[in-house]
């Protein structure tokens, strides 16, 4: 057979493979009778088009699918999505020991981190090592450190006021949350609050990683390949990749330096140092405490510990300052509860303030947090939803977006209405406040997040009664992309800015 004949046979064989695969997925696959677009059933590239080309918009397309097809939709060759708020606690139950969907979570880059761990049994072991650091008692021991760093933010804001400068709270809040989690994880801050750019370059690197995530989900090996390229080649091919690689190197170096630190100096701190304790404890087996895995875990702790809380503080401050009645009522409550603005109570006290608590809950609801659909896989048993029987090894997901913005549960869902949490029936609404997830995989840092939200928002509003917005509009705050977390437009210079009068 000559070269042309071989090429023709190869082409015919490849075409046959594609056609037979398409026929199987459309007509013979266990999900073939589930409703949804045929292109979504055929290939994950359908999702890739919306997430890679149209910048993280597949979750919004899924919403449109539900409008057309109903509460259960096939959103991928081996995945369904359910839109039914009453089913959320069933899917994400504490008794369900289901795996995460490996294809979906491949965009995290490395399954060695606890959050991205696929297997439920391995996750339980890794999560067990982290849980003690995020208990209410452990977070309480971090209070003095947290207040010290909040005071540093306040001082910078006061200095900006003296110079009549705008404060970019979009970055400032994230600088604060980075410094809090880095102090807890590494025993020292990354000093974001001291940076002239308020940590904007650091945020840019992480945002680059999140924007690359849809691409790495489609081609998982691409991320590992690009991380191994020389820096000059990364900068040539994709500057965002170079930013991400440098960020990983910096955190790896920080981890290595910590692990070589004199144990006496680590133990002398007022709070435990998470990365150190995990690396040298006997809670995890030896193969889970290698330096490579600990470094991956450190990167994960840093990312999970700063962005969501920083984003929530941004949303809360924007809406409070945008609504004079909300602002005034919150100020009155805080002035009564905190006579001395320099002495902010602990978060357990602040949690008892009804209007502040209503604002925190409404912030969590309207901001959502993780927009993504959090797919799970039951390896051995089918999953029942109404009359549908979903076969084993099928990915099944739900998005908090469609619950927390559901107009049947939360009328006027796009409006910031803290008063909805003060009504007599508000306890019934809390079932649908799923920002931190549910079940055995719910956010491990929920107690730390609440402590930061209460302490920071109370401090900023109480200390700066004349705080005013400087330019941002609803357009600047609009979530337009799902890079696991919902994100605003990537347009430099926008975001929450304020002036301190």
UniProtKB/TrEMBL annotation:
CDD domains for this protein: CYP58-like
Keyword Iron (UniProt): yes
Tree of life domain: Eukaryota
InterPro entries for the chain: Cyt_P450, Cyt_P450_CS, Cyt_P450_E_grp-I, Cyt_P450_sf, Cytochrome_P450_monoxygenase
Record: residues binding heme: 443
GO molecular function, one term: heme binding
Keywords, alphabetical: Heme, Iron, Metal-binding, Monooxygenase, Oxidoreductase
Required co-factors: heme
SUPFAM superfamilies: Cytochrome P450
Pfam families per the UniProt record, alphabetical: p450
UniProt keyword annotation of Hydrolase present: no
Family under the similarity heading: Belongs to the cytochrome P450 family.
PANTHER family xrefs: CYTOCHROME P450, N-ACETYLTRYPTOPHAN 6-HYDROXYLASE IVOC-RELATED
Protein name listed in UniProt: Cytochrome P450
């Amino acid at each position: 057979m000559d070269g042309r004949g071989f090429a023709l046979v190869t082409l015919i064989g490849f075409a046959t493979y594609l056609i037979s695969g398409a026929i199987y997925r459309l007509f013979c696959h266990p999900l073939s009778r589930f409703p949804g677009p045929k292109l979504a059933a055929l290939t994950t590239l359908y999702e890739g088009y919306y997430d890679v080309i149209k910048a993280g918009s597949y979750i919004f397309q899924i919403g449109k699918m539900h409008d057309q097809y109903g509460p259960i939709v096939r959103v991928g060759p081996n995945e369904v999505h359910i839109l039914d708020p009453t089913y959320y606690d069933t899917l994400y139950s504490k008794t369900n020991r289901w795996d995460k969907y490996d294809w979906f979570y491949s965009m995290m880059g490395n399954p060695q981190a606890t959050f991205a761990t696929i297997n439920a049994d391995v996750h339980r072991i890794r999560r067990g090592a982290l849980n003690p650091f995020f208990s209410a008692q452990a977070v309480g021991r971090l209070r003095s450190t947290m207040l010290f760093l909040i005071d540093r933010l306040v001082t910078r804001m006061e200095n900006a006021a003296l110079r009549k400068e705008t404060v970019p709270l979009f970055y400032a809040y994230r600088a604060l949350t980075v410094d809090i989690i880095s102090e807890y994880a590494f025993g020292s801050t990354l000093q974001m609050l001291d940076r002239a750019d308020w940590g904007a370059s650091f945020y840019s690197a992480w945002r680059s990683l999140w924007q690359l995530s849809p691409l790495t989900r489609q081609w998982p090996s691409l991320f590992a390949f690009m991380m191994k390229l020389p820096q000059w080649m990364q900068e040539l091919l994709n500057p965002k990749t170079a930013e991400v690689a440098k960020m990983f190197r910096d955190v790896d170096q920080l981890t290595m330096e910590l692990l070589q630190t004199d144990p006496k100096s680590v133990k002398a701190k007022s709070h435990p140092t998470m990365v150190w304790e995990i690396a040298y404890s006997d809670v995890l087996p030896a193969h889970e405490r290698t330096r490579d895995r600990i470094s991956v875990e450190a990167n994960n702790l840093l990312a999970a510990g700063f962005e969501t809380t920083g984003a929530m503080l941004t949303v809360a401050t924007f809406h409070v300052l945008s609504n004079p009645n909300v602002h005034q009522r919150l100020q009155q409550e805080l002035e009564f509860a905190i006579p001395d603005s320099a002495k902010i109570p602990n978060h357990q006290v602040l949690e008892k303030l009804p209007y502040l608590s209503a604002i925190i809950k409404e912030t969590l609801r309207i901001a959502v947090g993780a927009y993504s659909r959090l797919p799970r896989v039951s390896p051995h048993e089918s999953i029942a939803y109404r009359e549908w029987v979903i076969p084993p090894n099928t990915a099944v997901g739900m998005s908090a977006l469609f619950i927390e913005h559901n107009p049947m549960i939360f009328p006027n869902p796009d409006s910031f209405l803290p008063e909805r949490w003060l009504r007599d029936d508000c306890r019934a609404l809390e079932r649908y406040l799923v920002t931190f997830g549910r079940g055995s995989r719910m956010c491990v840092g929920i107690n730390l997040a609440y402590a930061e939200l209460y302490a920071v928002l109370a401090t900023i509003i109480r200390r700066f009664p004349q705080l005013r917005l400087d330019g941002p509009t609803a357009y600047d705050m609009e979530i337009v992309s799902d890079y696991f977390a919902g994100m605003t437009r990537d347009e430099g210079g926008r975001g929450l800015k304020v002036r301190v009068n």
